[in-house]
């Protein structure tokens, strides 16, 4: 029998390295009613265990004995600050009988309205991720600067210094986001092709150029209702992910198609795309081909697309090669 400490440590490692195996290891212990599980769950009640909570919630989502974990799931839901873990917990509780979800003294005059708390979580998580991505640019140029200094390459030094300055200015703009014009957060009529061209210019000034190709983007019927804030979350993340996957010679193609009352966008880059194994997990858990503990981008894209009233999925562009498809509602005519 696996000891509690070993089970916890193993699952904590696997939650980062291989979430699918982590779910299977947990289910094995859960179905065996392992005597060490109570101590394991006691650890998960402490702060900072969002990733393991997400693993457990996803593991039991369709399990016939899920009801055994409802008390734990309710505790996690009330305490969790990570929005994607909350989404996994909410999904696990979605089909549980309503009587099992009642908590005594659940309402309190001192509690903030749930919509305010949810809005705070959403905006703060987005700001944190955007600040991190902005710092990546400064860090990359600082590394380039060190290399150029070591080699005595003066032209490269000047370029790196200019790029660092641009990155710091961008960071300042991100820090000022909470004081932005309210119009930045409000829905308005947007010609998405023109909007993408402008965003690409801003991206290029901060990082490096992407070869952008828009197909059927200038159709006057392809206007949507959306906020600059949500659209930047969607497409800035896509640009960053494409650049990381394809490297310095990255190209992004966006194909526009009108289907009834919706605008369908197929997005291709010069990276390798998603494999078939990732098709079913891309929007359920954090995933990154780079560094363990990263990979929030796809979940953030999904959340923003849904707030725009749309849907996102992976479609098969070539055999066993999957790409992003986004469906957004067109502006009512």
Structure description:
With 333 residues, the protein is an alpha+beta fold. Helices cover 52% and strands 14% of the residues. The chain contains eleven helices and seven strands. It has helices at residues 4-17, 19-31, 37-44, 50-60, 70-79, 83-93, 114-151, 154-175, 192-206, 228-246, 297-307, and strands at 188-191, 211-215, 223-226, 251-259, 262-269, 311-318, 321-329. The strands form two sheets. Strands 2-4-5-7-6 form a five-stranded mixed β-sheet. A two-stranded antiparallel ribbon has the order 1-3. The protein is globular. The termini are far apart. Residues 104-112 and 287-294 have low confidence and may be disordered.
Query: What is the number of strand segments?
Result: 7
The H/E string reads HHHHHHHHEHEEHEEHEE
Strand content: 5-15%
Q: Can you list the strand order of the major beta sheet? A: 2-4-5-7-6
Distance between the termini: 64 Å
Class by helix and strand content? alpha+beta
- What is Rg? 22 Å
Detail the poorly predicted runs: 104-112, 287-294
Question: What number is the mean pLDDT?
Answer: 78
| Main beta sheet | 5 strands, mixed
| Overall morphology | globular
């Amino acid at each position: 029998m696996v000891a509690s400490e070993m089970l916890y440590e193993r699952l904590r490692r696997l939650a980062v390295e291989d979430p699918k195996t982590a779910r299977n290891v947990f289910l094995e212990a859960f179905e065996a009613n392992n005597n060490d599980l109570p101590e394991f769950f006691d650890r998960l009640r402490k702060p900072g265990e969002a990733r393991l909570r997400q693993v457990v919630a996803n593991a039991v989502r369709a399990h016939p004995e899920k009801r055994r974990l409802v008390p734990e799931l309710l505790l996690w839901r009330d305490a969790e600050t990570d929005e994607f873990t909350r989404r996994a917990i909410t999904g696990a509780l979605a089909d549980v009988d309503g009587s099992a979800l009642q908590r005594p003294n659940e309402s309190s005059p001192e509690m903030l309205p749930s919509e305010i708390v949810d809005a705070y979580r959403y905006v703060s998580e987005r700001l944190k991720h955007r600040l991190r991505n902005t710092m990546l640019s400064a860090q990359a140029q600082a590394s380039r600067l060190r290399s150029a200094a070591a080699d005595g390459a003066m032209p490269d030094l000047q370029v790196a210094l200019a790029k660092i300055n641009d990155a710091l200015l961008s960071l300042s703009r991100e820090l000022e986001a909470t004081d932005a014009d309210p119009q930045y957060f409000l829905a308005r009529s947007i010609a998405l092709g023109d909007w993408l061209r402008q965003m690409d210019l801003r991206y290029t000034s901060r990082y490096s150029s992407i070869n952008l190709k828009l197909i059927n983007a200038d159709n006057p019927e392809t206007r949507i209702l959306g906020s600059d804030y949500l659209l930047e979350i969607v497409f800035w993340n896509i640009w960053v992910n494409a650049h990381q996957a394809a490297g310095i010679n990255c190209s992004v193609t966006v194909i526009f198609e009108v289907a009834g009352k919706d605008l369908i966008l197929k997005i291709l880059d010069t990276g390798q795309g998603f494999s078939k194994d990732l098709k079913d997990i891309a929007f359920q858990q954090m995933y990154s081909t780079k560094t363990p503990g990263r990979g929030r981008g796809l979940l953030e894209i999904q959340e923003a697309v849904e707030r725009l009233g749309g849907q996102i999925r992976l479609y098969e562009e070539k055999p066993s090669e999957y790409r992003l498809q986004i469906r957004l509602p067109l502006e009512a005519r």
